[in-house]
Structure formats: structure tokens, C-alpha cells
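Example S7 (C-alpha cells).
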């Protein structure tokens, strides 16, 4: 047990446990559920108790389900405590003793099919599938491949129209999932094994462009945290579009749009203005949520919470949408966010959707 608590982890857990709790009203899990078990300091306090080998496992196991890994709490934390990293440790303890039910299923699916859904998410049934070694390769991620193949086709149409040098999709042997679900659910060993397989399968790639911020953050940060070196450059599609193309729309869109800041794109990787500047290339106006940029509320998708605490995830998604007029189409450069919003009956679009509409 104690080997999970190095000096830095224990210091962070202690600061958070005994802090005056300025983050209380920033945490979407605590704020929109009303459950004190999900207050950041309470969640971290449960972990701190475990560092003293005296925690209540049942209480901690439940409390750890209430973290979206959104980092909103850190916006109000004087010590800038990384609560998601601490919760990953907490969930690894849970995994060692009584894993969340979905963890076993998801690990089996990833081992057998390369993605969390257990589906054969083939690349080759897409109309664009050429591969050029050591060039730019698009990594859609399992959520895009399962739910948004139409958007992926639009992405290729925009890239081809823009005359950029990109290679397309990886080969069939490349797993569709980066492994984020395993890490978020506490299966660190399973994640490490999968990460090594993914990197090995992409060894000929020079630049990997992800269509999912969760994937980008995982490649850029979480792989190295478990000792898996990424030998290629990793870019979000927002970064790639900002650097590589000069997009010229055939028309400016006048539809009512509103922009949502995905947690991993924004607070985790700091990409706020870049995405907005891309959107402004094709639209004449875009509204903002009441809480935006670093203060943006989570959509309810992160941290695998929809799979281990569905009612909490629903409450957070509904809260995010509560004050947004239904006439707005939501621009969200993250497939997890878009899925949550669509599940609540809203129209949710990627930047590629916007660009493709502007060149029709």
C-alpha cells in the first residue's frame, strides 16, 4: 500500500485534506449532485486516510467515482493540487481490491479488439484510408470511429481541399484506443501494457494528429508517467489546423453557434484561443457559455464517470446545458463532449463539421 505514496503525493494529499476548501463550489461533481462525498478535499481526504492505512474502503471507492478529471478545482487552489492525478492513484487502489465493474469489461474489450467498446472498429470501410509512412497520420480515437465516422469523412474532405500533406489513417494493426479508459479507471498495469503496444504499432509515424483531446493528453503526458516513451510528435487537431492549413471558406456561416471548452483541450493543455480563432474563420458570430475558458464547466464526460457513476454524469451534463437556448448548435472540439450533448438532444459539432459546411 505505502509504495503508492511517494513524498510528493503525500504532500499534495495532506495540503488538500487540511485546506479551507476554496474549491468546493468549483467541482462539478459536488456542486451539481449536492453530495459532499465528491468535494475535492473529501475525495483526497479519503486517499490521505489510506496513506495512514486507516481508510474506509467502501466510502473511498464511492467517493473516487465523483471525479471527472476536469481540473476545475485547481483554478481555485492556492497550491495548484492536481486532484485528477491523486484520484488516479485512488482508483488504482480500488482496482487492486475491488475494481469497478466496467473496468474488467473494458480491459477485456481492449485486449481483444483494441478499443473499449469491444467492436471491430475497422479503418478500411472509410472512403479515405491511404497511409504514407513517416508523414502526418490521423488518429481518430475509438469514440470518433464508433459514433462519428461521418465527421471523419468531413475532416478528410477539408484536409484534401486545403492541400496539406497528410497521410490519412493508421494501418489496421493499430489499436483504435489510446488506453485512456484503463488509466482513468485505475488499471495502471493494463494501461501500461496497452500503451506500449500502441507506440510499437505507430513506430513509423513522424507526427500523430488526434481528433480527441483525451487521446492527445494521454499520448503527451500519461504515457510518459508510466514509463512509455512516445517517439513521435503528437498534436491535437486544433493545433494541427492552426499550424498546417490556410482555410478559406466559400461562405461565412450565419447559424447560431455557441462554443464549449473541453476540459482536456482547455485546462489540461491550455488551448483556448487557438480553437476560437479557427471557428472565426468560418462563422460570423459565436456565443460563449456563461462559464468559459479556464472557468468552463465540465460536460460530464471525463474521468470515465459515465461508466461508473452514470447519474452523476447526467446531472453534470444537464447543468452544463441548462441555460443554453436550444437554438444554438454547440461547437465542441472533443468527441466525448459531443456525445454527452447529443445524448441530451442537442446539436454538437466539431471544427471540421463547421469547416466542411463552409465549403459546400
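Recovered sequence:
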Amino acid at each position: 500500500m505505502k509504495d503508492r505514496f511517494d513524498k510528493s503525493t503525500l504532500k499534495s494529499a495532506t495540503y488538500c485534506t487540511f485546506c479551507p476548501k476554496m474549491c468546493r463550489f468549483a467541482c462539478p461533481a459536488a456542486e451539481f449532485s449536492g453530495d459532499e462525498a465528491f468535494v475535492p478535499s473529501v475525495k483526497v481526504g479519503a486517499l490521505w486516510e489510506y496513506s495512514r492505512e486507516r481508510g474506509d474502503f467502501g466510502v473511498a471507492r464511492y467517493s473516487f467515482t465523483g471525479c471527472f478529471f476536469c481540473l476545475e478545482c485547481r483554478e481555485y487552489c492556492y497550491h495548484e493540487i492536481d486532484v485528477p492525478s491523486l484520484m488516479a492513484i485512488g482508483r488504482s487502489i480500488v482496482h487492486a481490491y475491488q475494481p469497478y465493474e466496467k473496468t474488467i469489461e473494458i480491459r477485456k474489450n481492449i485486449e481483444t479488439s483494441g478499443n473499449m467498446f469491444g467492436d471491430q472498429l475497422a479503418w478500411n470501410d472509410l472512403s479515405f484510408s491511404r497511409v504514407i509512412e513517416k508523414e502526418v497520420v490521423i488518429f481518430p480515437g475509438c469514440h470518433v470511429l464508433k459514433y462519428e465516422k461521418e465527421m471523419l469523412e468531413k475532416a478528410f474532405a477539408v484536409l484534401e481541399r486545403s492541400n496539406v500533406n497528410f497521410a490519412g489513417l493508421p494501418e489496421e494493426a493499430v489499436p483504435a484506443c489510446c488506453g485512456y479508459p484503463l488509466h482513468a479507471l485505475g488499471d495502471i498495469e493494463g494501461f501500461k501494457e496497452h500503451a506500449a503496444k500502441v507506440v510499437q504499432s505507430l513506430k513509423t509515424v513522424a507526427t500523430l494528429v488526434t481528433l480527441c483531446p483525451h487521446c492527445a493528453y494521454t499520448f503527451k503526458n500519461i504515457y510518459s508517467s508510466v514509463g512509455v516513451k512516445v517517439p513521435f510528435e503528437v498534436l491535437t487537431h486544433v493545433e494541427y489546423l492552426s499550424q498546417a492549413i490556410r482555410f478559406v471558406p466559400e461562405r461565412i456561416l450565419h447559424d447560431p453557434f455557441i462554443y464549449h471548452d473541453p476540459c482536456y483541450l482547455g485546462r489540461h493543455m491550455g488551448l483556448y484561443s487557438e480553437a476560437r480563432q479557427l471557428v472565426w474563420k468560418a462563422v460570423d458570430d459565436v456565443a460563449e457559455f456563461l462559464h468559459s475558458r479556464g472557468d468552463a464547466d465540465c460536460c460530464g464526460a471525463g474521468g470515465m464517470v459515465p461508466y461508473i457513476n452514470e447519474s452523476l454524469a447526467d446531472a453534470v451534463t444537464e447543468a452544463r446545458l441548462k441555460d443554453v437556448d436550444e437554438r444554438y448548435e454547440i461547437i465542441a472540439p472533443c468527441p466525448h463532449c459531443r456525445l454527452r450533448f447529443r445524448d441530451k438532444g442537442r446539436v454538437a459539432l466539431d471544427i471540421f463539421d463547421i469547416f466542411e459546411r463552409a465549403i459546400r
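Notes on this example. The first helix runs from residue 7 to 17.
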